[in-house]
Each structure stands twice: as structure tokens, then as C-alpha cells.
Amino acid sequence: MYWVLVKAGVVRKKMRSLLTILSVVIAFFLYGLLHSADPLFSGAAGEINAERMIIMPKHDMMFGRLPQSHINYLESLEGVTNIAWLDMLSMDINSITENIPIFAISKDYFKVMDRFEASPEAKKAFFSNKRGALAGKTAADLKGWKVGDLISIPTFSKKNDGSNVWEFVIEGIYTTSPAADELGLMVRNEYVEEARIANKGTVSMILFNLDDPSKADEISNIIDDNYKNSAYATFTGNEITLSQKMLSDIGNIKLIITAIISAVFFTLLLVTANTMSQSVRERTSDLAILKSLGYRDMQIFISILLESNFIILLGALFGLILTLITIPFIDQASGGLTGGIIVFDTYQVMKGILIGVLMASLAGILPAYQAYKLKVVDALAKG
Amino acid sequence: MSEILVDVKNLSKEYKRGGETLIVLDDLNLEIPKQDFLALMGPSGSGKSTLLNLIGGLDTPSSGSVSINGERIDQMNSKQLSNWRAGNVGFIFQFYNLLPVLTAQKNIELPLLLTNLSSSERKKHVETALSIVGLSDRSGHKPSELSGGQQQRVAIARALVSDPDILVCDEPTGDLDRNTATDILNLLKSLNEDHGKTILMVTHDPAAADSAKRSLHLDKGKLTT
């Protein structure tokens, strides 16, 4: 019964229904795209989790330095298990689009950052060769690097011999999630430390694990308090909090996105409510006839709500499907860098559908109530 | 004397307009036997349509009673009235009031969607109603593809399809030319004589009233003849 009424309502003004559905499609497509980038703004992309701890320079996370003595202090703390450190070898800024970030890692890096994976053979070869390198899969694909290749990379860091061109031998390929982290080259920290002129005795960040992850806050506070008044003040946290901190330095992007989506949905709510209201006004006589035939007030109320739900959910469905179709294209266009970051999963689809139901109910409730209250005699008298 | 189908006793209907009370029906009494075909005539504002609406269960009286087939419909609540209308009364309006996006068949099927009939049973009922009104070959047409007379026939089929005791017609020929109006009136006569339907028809047209078995006149809320 309801389907006949809903269909009759929707096809009565086909163009208007179509345009309303189209506006819903666009709103939900926008919702889908913006929400699919959620992991990027929550810091929880791919395998990034809260169990890997990181110490970074408090005042300049991107380019600041930490002295190696911080590592010695960390070793003295109870509950700290694996410790590793990492240094960024500054690339030649003129060729930044051609080159890729170089991470000089210490020997326990793979223990701490267990989301990075390389074959045992590759790791063995890497740690046996002072100038060995492990290329991220994305980087290797992009640059066409193969195991055994000797590569030369110009950087801002000068070597003892006065050259700023660093040479490495590709000993293996590493993979990880998110795929964006595969755009990199891992080299030996010992070699970089030994060969460079500047920044000796310092690192970009220190990484460690805890025997009990629940102590994360306590240990973080101990470390940060210890260096509070130091020139090398620290910011300690897990991978997620660090990602969030770095993003918050740029601005509250998530809030901005939420504000945009809220504005879009609010406008859509008004548009749909107005369309439904207008549609019900135009159908006063049809609705009165239905009531005269024996349709109850509540049945008419439900049919209008269902009509509103049909329009919005159909639009939402197409919008969400469009998002799912588009994401692989974005991923492809980014060269696979967005894999694991631009994610639109079942949870977000369900959330979108729930928002659709909520919006449809809000948009439809007033027109449905108008239809519910409609008096047959008055409506027929008006024609 | 035939059995009484509609029994209206001391029926009054008043409306409040601003501070004034407008009496539309004033202590009216009326009995309509089964299988009667009664034409209600009277000037505009005499209360004809109001009486029709009260007997059809679309409105509730200010005082008095309306019994149809022994059931006091004036004492029913909105939900009970809806259920009662679905099974006991068929409405035919001046402007047909068909749903424009539905075919004739779907329009006629609307009252049956409220029943427990299966799809095939509903189809059978609709086909019967269509054949009674002589529109079997127009079942797939939408109202805009039908003439005024054909649309009114579809409306009559819709009123008939749930096999109600009484058909309530408000100016059923008011929007039709003379020939088409005659056809519709003949159809109503046939429903009354051949199918035993009780018909209450409001009309301004004396020629239409002549088709009925009897006529009553309303003036200022009172029956005058």
C-alpha cells in the first residue's frame, strides 16, 4: 500500500523529485569524500596505532633536533622496551618533486615500528651494508628502483668529502600501511651520522615501545617533564597523538570539514523540507481523497515520511556509491599514496545512511504532520 | 416498507466564525431506505454538502445522531470512521478527484489496498468494477488520457470497488456536458436498480434530480419537502 502512495507522490512532479534527489546525491558525495579522508585528520590511518611511542622536538616537530643523549635517558626508564631513532636526510628542495624522503634508521627500527615490513633477507643485506638502503614499494615503483641498484641522491646535508650527493645501494623493498609511508627510502643511521658534517649527535625523532601500553601517558609525562626547561624540550606521544599534534599545528582541519558538511546538510534539510512541504500543499486534494476512501491519518503521515525517506535515501545511496566508485580513481591519481588513508568503509556508509534517515525524518515530519491534520471536508471545499 | 439504511435524527451542525455561530443544519431528521436513490437539492449554502459529509462519515455533527445500517457513526472516533468509510461508503465527487499519476486500474484499486485481499483478488475486483462502468479497455490509461465522462466513470468504479452499501455523490454531473451527464446518471440508475446500491446525490440540476427515485429540498439547514 505504502509503495503505491510513495511512488505516486514521487512521480507526481518528476523533474522536481529528480532535482531534489540530485542535490541529495551531491551532498552525500561531498560527505563521502570528506569523511573518507577522516583517517588523515584523526591520525589513525592504516596500521598507525597507539602502541608505538615517539619523542619529537616540542617546538619544531618538522625540522627540530633532539640530542642523542635523550636516548641514553630513555634507556634508564623502567617499562621502556625497544628503542630506535630516525633522522631525516634533508633533500635538495629543488628536486623535491623528483626525490623522496630519506629516513636514516637505527638498528631496532623494525622492532619498534613493526608495521614496516621487509623480508629477513632484505633486512640482513641492509644491515650488512653501510650504504645499504631499503626502498618503500611506492618509491621503488615510482623511481623504477630494483634490488642491487646504486642510486645517487642530492640532499642539503653535506658529507665529509664536501659533496652533498649521497649514494646508496638498494638492498630490498619495504611495505607498510598506510601506503603513503611507502614513499620513502630507509638508510643506515650509523652511516649518515658518520658521513655528515652538520647535525652530528642529533636525531629527528626517537621511537620506543612499552612493556605495558597503559603506562603511555605516565611515561610520556616523565620524559616531557624532564626536558621541560631544556633547549631540547620534547613532545612525547603515540603515533596517533603525534599525527594529531602535527595536524593541529596546521589548523583544525577536521573541525573545518565538519562545519562544511554540517552546512551542506543543513541547507539540504531546508531544501528537502521545503520541497516536501510544497509537494504536500499541492496534493491537498489527493490526500483528502485518500482519507475519504478510508486511509487513516496515521497511514497518510507514514506515507509522507516514507516519501521523504525514499527521496533522501535514494539520493544518499547514489551519493555514497559515487564516493565508493571515485575513491579508487583518487587512489590511482595519487599513485597509490592515498591507500589506507582515503578510506570509506562500511561504518561510514552506515553512518551516511543513518544521517539520511535522520534528515529524511526531519525534512518530512512537518509536511507529514500537515497531511495528518488535514481535514477532508475543508480540503475538498477548497478543491 | 424497505429497511432503513440511513437514519438521521435531530441532526445539527454549527460552525463558529469569529464570535458568530453559523447554523448549517438545524435539527434535521431523515430516513433513507435501502436501495433508495435520493436527490438532495437546494440553493448554495443550504447545507446539502454538509449533510452529505455527515452521512458519509467525513464530518461529525454538533448534535443529533447519524446511524448507517444501525451503526452510530456520529459516535466514532477518527480511526473508526476511516475504517468504516473504507468498507461502507463510496464517494463520487464533481471533479472526479483521481490521482493523476496512477492509471485507471490503480486509482480504482486504492480502496482495496486497505484490505487483506491478495493482488490477484484485487485485480479481479477492479476488472469487475471497470466492466460495470464500461471502461474495461481503458484500465491502463491515466486520468489525463481520459475524457471527463470517462474519468467520472473511473471515480464511480473506485467508489464501487469495495462493494459499499451506500454511494454518496456530490454534484456528480456538475462538470460534464448534457450527454455525458445523462450517461453518468444512467449508470448511477443502473447501479441503484440492478446492483441494489443506495445512492444519495447532491445536485443543483433538476434534470439530474429527475433520475433519482425521489428528491428532497434543503433550505437554510432544514428539509423543506
Walk me through the topology.
The complex is a heterodimer of chains A (383) and B (225).
Chain A: H1 2-12, H2 14-36, H3 38-42, E1 53-57, E2 66-67, H4 69-75, E3 80-89, E4 102-105, H5 109-112, H6 120-128, E5 132-136, H7 137-143, E6 150-154, E7 165-174, E8 185-188, H8 189-195, E9 202-203, E10 205-210, H9 216-226, E11 234-238, H10 239-250, H11 253-282, H12 284-292, H13 297-333, H14 346-373, H15 376-382
Parallel strand pairs in A: 4-8, 5-7
Antiparallel strand pairs in A: 1-10, 1-11, 2-9, 3-4, 3-10, 5-8, 6-7
Helix pairs in contact in A: 1-13, 2-11, 2-13, 11-14, 12-15, 13-14
Chain B: E1 4-17, E2 20-33, E3 37-41, H1 48-55, E4 63-68, E5 71-72, H2 78-88, E6 89-92, H3 104-109, H4 119-132, H5 148-160, E7 166-170, H6 178-195, E8 198-202, H7 206-211, E9 214-219, E10 222-223
Parallel strand pairs in B: 3-8, 3-9, 6-7, 7-8
Antiparallel strand pairs in B: 1-2, 1-4, 4-5, 9-10
Concise account of the structure shown:
The complex is a heterodimer of chains A (383) and B (225). Helices cover 54% and strands 15% of the residues of chain A.
For the terminal residues of chain A, how far apart are their CA atoms? 25 Å
Structural class of chain B: alpha/beta
Major β-sheet strand ordering of chain B: 6-7-8-3-9-10
Number of strands of chain B: 10
Q: What gyration radius of chain B follows from the Cα positions, in whole Å?
A: 17 Å
Oligomer: heterodimer
Classification by helices and strands of chain A:
alpha+beta
Q: What proportion strand of chain B?
A: 25-35%
Please report which band the strand proportion of chain A falls in: under 5%, 5-15%, 15-25%, 25-35%, 35-45% or over 45%. Answer: 15-25%
The global form of chain B is globular
Give a quick account of the main beta sheet of chain A: strands, pairing sense, barrel closure: 9 strands, mixed
What's the total helix number of chain B? 7
- Mean pLDDT, all residues of chain A: 85
* Main pleated sheet of chain B: 6 strands, mixed
Helix content of chain A: 40-55%
The low-confidence parts of chain B are none
